[in-house]
Amino acid sequence: MTTNVQRTAGVPRATTAALVLAVFTVSVGYGVVLPLLPDLVERLLRTAVSPRLVSRHTGLLTAIYALALFLAAPAWGRLSDVHGRRNALFAGLLGFSVATVVFLLIESVAAIYVQRFLSGLFAAAATPVASATIGDLSPADEQRGRRLAFVSMAGIAGFLIGPTLGVFVTSVGTEILAIRSQAGSITIPLASMAILAASVSVVVAFAVPNRKRLDTTRKVQVVRPSKALQVITRLLVLTFIVSAGIGVFEVGLALRGRQELNLTPYQVALMFTECSLVMFAAQAVAFSPWIKAHTTRWFIAPALFALMIGLVLVPWASSFWLMLAAIGGVAASAGVLSPILTYWISTGAGTAQGWELGKQTAAASLGVTAGSAAGGLLFNIGGVPGLSFLLAAGLVVAGLFLSLGLPGALLPDASGHQAHTKERP
Fold first, then answer.
1. Among the residues of 182-313, which ranges form H helices?
2. What is the dihedral of CA 235, 86, 144, 247, to 10 degrees?
3. For 313-360, how does the pLDDT look when each residue is reduced to its tens digit (9 = 90+)?
4. Domain 218-425, CATH
5. How do residues 265-312 score in pLDDT, each as one tens digit?
6. What is the CATH number of domain 1-216?
């Protein structure tokens, strides 16, 4: 397999800011909508409904969003490879804005399912295209790693801030506009997100280059042997495994906190906040100036081992404080793995940045969906405490074996493990 890659001067700050803002916007839009779903479902059903029915619809609506991400991310990545990064990212953000506006016009539960699928369809463009743009423009390993970590951190920050921001915007908006109806309280945050997404799409149109290949003084021919493609496949499988483990962890965490430890909603929310903050910090450290990008390949196996240990310990944490300690271990290991896997996939992707990173987004979405479903269905089934956590830990053990030999396979060398390069006139 041969591709043409080009040497670039780096990622302009304005471009980096636009890419980070695009990923943050889509993530915060998801976070804003999530707590609104139960109230919206209950209002649209218009009759007395059981909490179980509302919960079922909320879970399915969340799953269909993730399904759309899984289906669309590789396609967006391929479109950006063929038609340019800016075009794909602009279309995704603008479509996300329009889909959010459609949310305001919904009058049936069935229509919510269509809207959530469309939102996920357009949101799927953000992360793979933003990451592929960085892969195109970054000339140095350290710069690429840090920029990709910024993108991942933006996604976590958006999810963390989204619910709180939605409450704040609703509170301020209802005071200013004197809106007191339930429908009005939903309209304000959704309209705000639609305006934000449309505004960021304009920023992207001016700040993100659309050239599939940047101007260069020399072209470099990159030959990716089948072994390099096999390595990328292993990294994609590891992405799925880590995401599935996190999906099981998040659902099991909420269920265990409420059903077994009798924690308050505030304490459960605090656990999730800790999880997001630790992951955010871990990603910042993974590609900090003190760590060389090429050495991160050695962190994969230890991080998987730490993730496995954390998943095993969570069911045995008998108090709120012990839970916080176990959560910190799981979040730190997952936070380290996410940008490292993205970095090495990008490094091995050549000019197929969008396609390979789109597949990674799809693998992560599929993993979270499968893990979340398993976390709910298998939680303490058959009277076995922490069964879902133990099964997730077993899956991570399989990933640990899969990671053996990766450090050597990921290191570019003269034998072509990663790529051969030669000058072309």
1. 182-207, 226-259, 265-286, 300-313
2. -40
3. 887 877 778 878 888 888 899 888 988 998 898 888 777 788 888 999
4. 1.20.1250.20
5. 667 667 777 778 888 888 888 877 788 878 888 999 999 999 999 888
6. 1.20.1250.20
